[in-house]
Specification:
The structure is a single chain. This protein is of the alpha+beta class. The protein has one domain: Alpha-Beta Complex (Nucleoside Triphosphate Pyrophosphohydrolase), CATH 3.90.79.10. It contains four helices and eight strands; from the N terminus they run βαββββαβββαα. Strands 1, 2, 3, 4, 5, 6, 7 and 8 form an eight-stranded mixed beta sheet that branches.
Amino acid sequence: MDRAHSGPALTDRGFQLAYKCAYQMMRVYWRVTGKMTHGTLVALWNRGEVLLVRNSYVKYYSSPGGYLRRGEDAKDALVRELREEVGVSATRDDLTPAHEEKHVWEGKRDHVEIFEMDVAERPVIHVDNREVVEATWFTPERALQLNVFPPLRKVIEKRARA
């Protein structure tokens, strides 16, 4: 298991609190408005292991990704999010569609697109200790023992069966 994590500074703790508060406010907004969110994730694979991240504002593991900005498609969002969240460079052509679904999650209607990306060399992962507080490589078997975002779990299960 390869872990990219160093302890947060006091300023980082302040940002973590701000992220938690903002996310809770957004959950209320989504619940009240009923608007559908649209997010995208990438299952980053190397040597049979998947990179999972833990964000400061939720209690489950996910993978790098986020919500689409206005005028952005899922692949563009992932190229941006990979760079912002874990310091990994990618192109649209590196991303292969793996799963798409619409579901209710955390009180909101959610549309999620998940892509996969296999990398030959394990990239150096950088986390900001603000939004992303952990980034760790896991075997599919170990990842499936964790509390993982349900649509991402389906992608990992499919890879584990292959």
